[in-house]
Structures are given as structure tokens and as C-alpha cells.
Amino acid sequence: MTDLDLLAPNTERLSARIAELAGFHDSTFPGWSREVFSEPYRASRQWVREQMADAGLDVVIDAAGNIVGRLPGRRGGGPALVTGSHTDTVRQGGRFDGIVGVMAGIEVARRLRETGVQLEHDLVVVDFLGEEANDFGISCMGSRAIAGVLRPDHLDRTDGTGLRLGDALAGFGLDPDAALRQGWKSGDVHAYVELHVEQGPLLEQSGTAIGVVTAIAGIDRLLVHFAGLAGHAGTTPMADRRDALVSAAAAVLTVERVGCGAPVHGVATSGHIESSPGSMGVITDEARLWAEIRSVDRTWLHGARKQIVDEITAETRARGVDIDVDWLTDQDPVPTSGLVQDVIAQAADHLGDSWKAVPSGAGHDAAHLSRLGPMGMIFVPSVGGRSHCPEELTAAEDIARGAHVLASTLITLDRREEVRHA
Ligand code: HGY
Ligand code: MN
Ligand code: MN
Is 132 in the pocket of ligand 1 (CB under 6 A)? Predict the structure, then answer.
């Protein structure tokens, strides 16, 4: 039996820990809600910290709230093998998105200690703070800080209540100013590999066990402000109206039409509309629309940005409504390391798992970690391709299979002197 086989995860333990973490959720919502800065999230961070310590990791919480566990390697210090993901959820989310990557990383640490296998490089397992899209419009808060791309203007973003992100971080016991300065150096990372549920249908539809991720989609999120003219819904002739809500609704259809026109992987989604005064009998004078476009194809993404703004602006102004567009994020697509892809595929082959190359339509912390070193991602199937909903589900044996491929990939990368940032 080789080391690669030695590190098979304890499936029951891994499954039980994932279920235990799901217990930290806001039960006033259907499904599983553990949004960033929420009380269930605060309580869960202490539990994750204890899990890491119990697995033999030296744990620190950095200024941005990332939980960073380190298992010293034979060489001690130097570039580390890094894995991890996030444990925050979307509102009414599921039990596996992100969680699987953090718990599998902790399970790898446990198996290293139980088997006595010692790595050359330190193993670092990270639970990144606030990966999900949130009311501040800034996802991947913690991994941006680690990658050194969390900016002062990000901290000035406010949520719907006017709370600044910087103040929310401080209220969570963190140090936002220090978070701006805590970026890791590129020499800190030998390689980064993240296990994640696919959140889409490709693996299940093809009956494939492992996804070797080729690229992570770029995500551009926008907030559109519509300013019309309030008036009486009963006496104002239709032709004289400047209805902000109608303009926002037309914009929702334009966003959908742009997404449907993508010749390659490209999608466009409207997530939320707010309107005021929001009363029957009153023509809406203010509306706001939050939307996003995503693609692994940079050219389409940039073209879609322009197309959406041009078309929404033209149709809004034609209704006599004023418009203002704020781009909240402009995250370009990120290719994964070809070398890490090959190592993941070899590990799957060695373990007898079917695999296929797949793009990630979802965004991930890995996109930011790729600034620090060679990055790869391993997907396991999502039942029905569902995610970001209570029905999100990945079978325990599929998670264990992914954790085993993760362990084998890390061991193989550990033995390579240099993992080219290819
Ligand atoms: O929204 C996403 O793409 C990821 O699940 N945070
Ligand atoms: Mn995720
Ligand atoms: Mn997610």
C-alpha cells in the first residue's frame, strides 16, 4: 500500500463533521443559512477552530477573520501546501458548498497524523471568511485579504442598512485596517488545491466521479439605479409616466437575453430588485437592480458588460427614466494550473476514479489564491446539479472520494521540488 492509499479519509467521521457544522444555522429560514457576520457563523468559527486544533493543526485567526491551521512539514517553514474553502452559506443555502473543502482539508491533516506520514512542506488548511456574495457586494473577503487584493474602497461598501464592511469586520472582532496589509507573499505557497462540490450538472449527467477544474468563471456584479417620477396610479396617463419599476423590470429581461446569447459558457442573472415607495396606487420613482454576469470566456464577459449597459441605458432613457450603473466587482476568469490539473487527474486514475475536465461556473476563493501560486480545484458531483438551495446534496462516498483525491494530489505535489506556476 502506498502513501497515496494510506490517506484514505475516514468517511463516517468526515460525513459526521459536515453534518455537525450544518447544525450552526439560522433556523428562521428554510434550508441552511450561515451568512457572514451572522450569529450562527460566529458560533461556527469557534467550532471550526476547535476541529482544526483537534486534527493537530496550529491555528491562528488572521486580521481578516480567516481561520488558518498549519501542520509543520519536515522542512518547516517555506512555501506551504495550501488547501481549504469557506463555511459561510448563502441565505437558505445548503450543507456542502464550501464546507466540503474545509472539512476535507482537516480530514487530510487528521489522516497524516494518524498514519505518521510527514510532508516535506507545511500543510496549511484555511477556512476563508465571507466567500459568498453578500449585501456588501464583496465576496471572497478573506481570500482577497490573503491574496493582498482587499482594498480600502471595499471596506467603505455598505449593506442595505448603511453598515460599512469595515465596521462589520470590526464588529466581528477583526481588524479591517490590518486586513488590508496582511497579504501573503507569493513565496508562501508551494501549491493551492481546493475540493468543492460542482454545484452544476456536468459530473452527474456524465456519470463521472471527479471533476478536474480547468478555469474559474469571471464574475461581474452590477447595481443599477433607476430614477423616475412618482405619481398617482389612477390619474397619470400611461404615455406620461416615468416608471422606475417598469424600467427595472425591462432591465431584468435584458440581462436574461444577454445571458441566453452566450456562444460559450456565459450566464447572466438578476438577483434582486428594490423599489420605492413600493405602494399600490403610486407610480414608482426609485428602483435598484442587482445583477451579475459570469463566464470562463474573458472576451464574452467584457462584451456582455458593454452590451448590458448600452441596452439597459437606451431602454431606460426611452422611458424618460434616469439611470446610473455601478459595477460592484470585476473578477476576470482564472485558469487553473495545467500541472496541478495533471496531478489531480493522475491521482484520480491511481485511485480508480473516473474524471473529466470541467469549467467552474461558480466563483471560488481559489481564484484569488491563484495570485500566490499554482492553483487547482477538484469537483465532486452535486445531486441534480443543485446548489445554493436547501436541496444541495453530495453523497458521503463522493465526498470521501474527493477527499482521497485531494490527499493524493497534495502528497504528489509535496514531492515535487517546484510546481511551475503554469
Ligand atoms: O456564487 C458563487 O459562485 C460561489 O458559490 N460563491
Ligand atoms: Mn463555494
Ligand atoms: Mn456558493
Answer: yes
Over residues 253-278, the pLDDT tens digits come to 999 999 998 887 899 999 999 999 99
Neighbours of ion ligand 3 (CB under 5 A): 97
| CA 128 to ligand 3 centroid distance, Å | 13
Reported as a single tens digit per residue, the pLDDT across 177-219 is 999 999 999 789 999 999 999 999 999 999 999 999 999 999 9
Ligand 1 atom 6, closest CA: 132
410 contacts: CB under 8 Å, gap ≥ 6: 81, 83, 108, 119, 123, 193
Q: Check pocket membership of 97 for ligand 1, CB cut-off 6 A.
A: yes
* Residue 277 and residue 186 share a domain: no
Q: 398 in ligand 1 pocket by Cβ < 6 Å?
A: no
Contact 197/161 with Cβ under 8 angstroms?
Answer: no
Of 295, 327, 359, the residue at which a domain comes to its end is: 327
The number of beta carbons lying within 10 Å of the beta carbon of residue 233 is 14
User: Residues near 400 by Cβ (< 8 Å), separated by ≥ 6?
Assistant: 8, 9, 11, 14, 15
Alpha helices in 8-148 (DSSP H): 11-22, 39-54, 99-115, 141-147
Does the C-beta of 363 come closer than 6 Å to ligand 1? yes
Atom of ligand 1 nearest to the CA of 387: 5
Query: Looking at the 3D structure of the chain, how many domains does it have?
Result: 2
CATH number at residue 222: 3.30.70.360
Residue 57 structural domain:
3-217+333-421
The residue whose CA is least distant from atom 5 of ligand 1 is 362
Of 260, 295, 327, which one is at a domain's C-terminal end? Answer: 327
Give the position of cell 453578500. 134
| Nearest one of 347, 380, 415 to 8, comparing CA atoms | 347
Ligand 1 atom nearest residue 97's Cα: 5
Residue 420 has pLDDT above 70, yes or no: no
